[in-house]
Design goal:
The longest helix has 12 residues. Strands 1, 2, 3, 4, 5 and 6 form a six-stranded antiparallel β-sheet that branches. With 117 residues, the protein is α+β, with helices and mostly antiparallel strands. The mean pLDDT is 85. The protein has one domain.
Amino acid sequence: MSEPGFDILPRRPGFHMTFENGYCVSVQFGAHNYCEKRDSPDEHWPPPEGAVWASADAEVAIFYPREEEGRRRFVKLENHDDVTGWKSPTEVLRIMTWAANQGAPPTLKEVSDAETG
């Protein structure tokens, strides 16, 4: 999604939120994500009708707005990973606020240079 708004992913417990500046935040909280549901069996998704899938924390990723070379780049959130896990609702809000307040995105070269340091 490149327009501002919300996106729910099929077969995945979570969502994407894209801001007016183009940055996209992914919030996931299912089996195999870095959250309390990490070790839940896949067969628990989707939940039975009428049931609610809930988690105390979530895995978060941020995508740069610009697609270059046919792909979107992750904003590096951890030393060795593009995602950060076990984030509380307050921490997710802080990450979203940061993404929403970013200015013009760096070019692919600038991102690569920063990652290789």
